[in-house]
Write a structure and sequence with these properties.
The chain is of the alpha/beta class and 393 residues long. The protein is 50% helix and 14% strand.
Length: 393
């Protein structure tokens, strides 16, 4: 997950006498670059995940520092380092409290530290970690897209992940992702990565096949659930305009099964999109697990429409409820009494409808095969399959 605030403190904290004094919950924020900031002008160039460094020459009072923190939060910065001892001697408590509230890491380094050397050092570390991340992402994409490449991917990932351990994939989709230019998509990706609280180096986050992908390795189920809930909360607060759908795979053992986890996450994502749900987990999909895993979605549409077309046409022409009646007839095992209580329709009317359905479909609806065919056709119809959704043909 990139070079993080935690990495910076662990590897360079002593050298530069860094102190983390606020926003501790943002310790896992990854850093895209380090930028010197002495006024508000440069903020318009922030894309997200930048670590801001200031001597405080332009922020030498409490109000200016508070305004800076709010602006950094709006621009999705990774954190703020203040070079204390000359323009700013002490960070006001209100600023520390605001950073805590926003989970924006606030660090200090003493005036004696050469800021230019620190920025150079951090920039090199970020660059090298970025190269490593690209290699890791490439290996994961190999394992996802080409199962026969899993052996090569295993060698590439061996020193960074437990390739024999558990893997789980979380897919995130927003409308229009695949049509955005690279800069805008990267900007959104940076923001989303910051919203993934407490995600450390046993995870990888990247864009692939019209979705943002989060791969978790040996992350306990309760931690995974908390990461997703915190992400949804942060998204709703900081990107309320971002309509996001999430699909969560089952946990799979061994890197060789990563492509299976990906297909299951894609199936869950498709169900989330078509049903308008914020999040769907593969294990909770019931029989839809089978239907959404069918790669040929055009075939599913044909199977459903070919069987149900007479009822759909009749309902459209007569404003009737034959399709609903069929679904309840199958679901309630042909009990007209139960159907009458559920639909508030007289049983004689329901018997007439069922006879009409049998005639239109050319089925007697007594065989298990007829019932299964109709049940599956209705389920597929409710999937609302449309070309253009991620992974749909």
């Amino acid at each position: 997950m990139g070079f993080t605030i935690e990495d910076m403190l662990t590897l360079t904290g002593d050298r530069y006498q860094m102190s983390l004094i606020g926003g501790n919950n943002g310790w896992a924020n990854s850093i895209s670059w380090v930028l010197m900031l002495e006024d508000f002008t440069i903020l318009r160039n922030f894309m997200g995940k930048e670590l801001a460094v200031t001597t405080g020459i332009g922020f030498d009072n409490e109000d200016k520092l508070l305004a800076l923190v709010r602006d950094l939060n709006r621009h999705h910065a990774a954190g703020l380092i203040v070079n204390t001892g000359f323009y700013i001697h002490e960070i006001p408590g209100s600023v520390i409290s605001l950073c805590d509230e926003l989970d924006l890491p606030l660090l200090t380094v003493p005036w004696e530290i050469l800021i230019s050397e620190m920025i150079k050092d951090l920039s090199v570390r970020i660059f090298l970690q970025g190269m490593t991340d690209e290699q890791i992402i490439g290996a994961f994409i190999k394992a996802i897209g080409s199962p026969d490449m899993a052996t090569a991917a295993r060698q590439d990932l061996l020193q960074y992940f437990d390739v024999d351990g558990d893997f789980q994939i979380i897919l995130m989709h927003m409308p229009g992702l695949d049509t955005m230019d690279t800069v805008e998509r990267k900007r959104i990706g940076y923001r989303m990565e910051l919203y993934l609280e407490n995600v450390t180096h046993n995870c990888s986050f990247f864009y692939y096949d019209a979705c943002f992908v989060l791969i978790c390795n040996n992350l306990p189920p309760d931690i995974t659930g908390q990461v997703i809930r915190d992400f949804e909360k942060r998204m709703s607060l900081r990107m309320p305009e971002g309509r996001i759908s999430i699909g969560v795979s089952s946990r799979m053992k061994d890197l060789d099964q990563l492509h299976v986890a990906y297909r299951r996450a894609k199936a869950a994502l498709q169900m989330a999109i078509t049903t308008g749900s914020k999040r769907v987990q593969f294990e909770d999909m019931g029989i839809y697990r089978l239907l959404y895993l069918v790669p040929d979605k055009a075939l599913l549409r044909e199977m459903s429409r070919d069987l149900l077309k007479p009822l759909l046409d009749y309902d459209a022409k007569h404003q009737s409820q034959l399709l609903e009646t069929l679904e309840n007839y199958i679901r309630l095992d042909g009990s007209f009494q139960a159907m009458s209580e559920l639909m508030f329709v007289h049983r004689n009317t329901l018997m007439y409808r069922v006879n009409k359905i049998k005639k239109l479909l050319g089925m007697d609806l007594t065989s298990s095969e007829d019932k299964l065919s109709c049940r599956m056709a209705c389920l597929i119809l409710h999937m609302n399959l449309k070309p253009g959704l991620p992974g749909q043909s």
